[in-house]
Amino acid sequence: MTKHQELFHQLFQTSRIFAKNLNEKLSDLGIYSSQWTIIYCLKRSGPATQAELCQYLNVEAPTMTRTITRLVNAGWVSKTTGRNNREKRIELTEAAHSTYPLWEKTVSEFEETALNGITDADIKTLNTHFQQILGNMNIQE
C-alpha cells in the first residue's frame, strides 16, 4: 500500500469507527450521528431549507429527506413553509432546544476521548490539512 493509500484507508476506517461509536453514545438519547449533524447545523446557524442542509453537509436529497422525516417524527425538528409553497424551512423544536445541551455534552465528551493525547497544535494542523484536501476535491468536481 502506498503512503497515500494508507492515509485514506486510515481516514475512512477512523471515520466509520467514529460514527459507529458515536451512534452508540447518542442512541440512548434518541438520535444518531447523521441526525446530530443536522441538529448541530440548525442550532449553530438557525432554520435552513433542506437544499441548504444538503449542500452544506454534502448529502443527497433522498437521504436528507429520510433523516429529516425521522427527526420530525421524533419531535426534534419541524417544517414550515419557506419563500414559496414548495420550499420547506427546517427548524429545531423546543424539545430539541431543551435536549441540545445533553446531546452536545455527550458528543463533546466523546470527541475529547477520541482526541486524547493529541495536542491543540496537532488538531490545528489536521484541520488545515483536511481543509486543503476538501479544497482539492472541490476543484476537481
Automatic annotation (TrEMBL):
Keywords: DNA-binding, Transcription, Transcription regulation. Signal peptide: none annotated. The keyword Coiled coil does not apply. PROSITE patterns: HTH_MARR_2 (PS50995). The keyword Cytoplasm does not apply. Pfam families: MarR. Residues 4-135 form the HTH marR-type domain. GO terms for molecular function: DNA binding; DNA-binding transcription factor activity. InterPro entries: HTH_MarR-typ (IPR000835), WH-like_DNA-bd_sf (IPR036388), WH_DNA-bd_sf (IPR036390). This is MarR family transcriptional regulator.
